[in-house]
Amino acid sequence: MKKSPLAILFLTVLLDLIGFGIVLPLLPTYAKDLGANPFMIGLITAIYSTMQFIFAPLWGRLSDFIGRRPVMLCSIFMASVSYVFFAHATTVLLLVLARGLSGIGSANIAAAQAYITDVTDSQSRSKAMGMLGAAFGLGFVIGPPLGGSLMTNFGIQMVGFVAAGLIGINFILAVFFLPESNRDAKTLAHFFGSLSERSSLPFFASFKEKSKIYLNDVRTAFSSSPVALLMSANFIYTLGVVNMQIAAILLWEEQFHATEQQTGNLFAYVGVLTAIVQGGLLGKLNKRFGEHRLFLWGHLITFVGVFFIPFIPSTTLFSLGLVILFFYAIGTSLVHPINISMLSLYSYTQKQGQIMGYGQSINALARIMGPFSGSILYGMYPQMPFIVAGALMIAGTMISIGLFRYKIEALETKPDTPADPQVAE
């Protein structure tokens, strides 16, 4: 295993996502049973992404300093504990606390992405990021049906305990088989021995100093034009997709008269396609066509997969609807991992974890806004969320075209010195 750290990284992310998928579909109903009103249900859903938005850059930056391994171990353990809280969440407040703690732990995806940048070269990075995406797809294929079965046969406590157990196994595997990948990382002894040296350890600076450091880091990250474009594309694309996902559930149940089981099957269908493309085909496609073309095509393909969903006859959900969702699955399978891969390739090599953290934070911000915008737009006009999602895909396509100006090459300059990659001739 030590010779193939990506294999154990894939397994740890997969177990984490299965645990997440077990709980996610049951949250609204469970929260309602605890007496939560619609606003509180929305808060419980959003608190997870809110914590990711806040903590993803912190985990990423910390992994640049002390290494990926200790950050991942700490956050995986925290995620496991959060599901124990979930199993004992008998009030709305405890449920909010459990989901918030889970969001903090799961924000380690920035460290996992940075880990991949440490152990891959530019030719193999998209394939490795696709493997991480395949873990997401499989997590959503396995998790929701397992969670539904556990809930039906054993109750909500067992759902929490199984999720905690799976992530506990994840923690054990990481302890024994996940080596450190960041060669520039300081030891924990050096980290704690530097607490009094504020200049070398900005985590413990004053609030004013922290604000200055944070704003300077953001300016440095976004001083690279392709990084800024990719961050913008990440937000626009994720907002469009989440906007559509929330509305699609309502549309399928209210206008297509799909049952909860059928809706779950549609998402499982998308998950299977995503796992196949990201796990087996993305590397080959990237070698043949390159990141820039696949990123552009992914936006155009996703446009078909989101815009036309509400305009098919109600009797064709499991025929023509599956064709449209095929385009959606292929598009998302291309855009998300390639965005992350290109972001790492355009970023300062000394701050990969931090840049991955910003990317994950922007992704989380879109996932906070998406459910609210999707439900509001659907209430105004059922087709509107899909029209807006299609418009956002077109905006992402324009950004994708703009990225062709820039060569793909990581910045080797000092992270405090803003620089733009060379513009392609």
Would you kindly provide a written description of the structure presented here, covering whatever features stand out?
With 425 residues, the protein is an all-alpha fold. The chain has 2 domains: 1-185, Growth Hormone, Chain: A (Up-down Bundle); 217-425, MFS general substrate transporter like domains (Growth Hormone, Chain: A, Up-down Bundle). Helix content is 77%, strand content 0%. The chain has 16 helices and no strands. The protein has helices at 5-23, 27-33, 38-66, 68-87, 92-106, 109-119, 125-154, 156-177, 188-193, 207-222, 225-254, 260-289, 291-307, 320-346, 352-380, 384-402. Helix 7 runs antiparallel to helix 8. The longest helix is centred in the N-terminal third of the chain and has 30 residues, at 125-154. It starts with a helix and ends in a 23-residue tail after the last helix. The model is unreliable at 194-204 and 410-425 (pLDDT under 50).
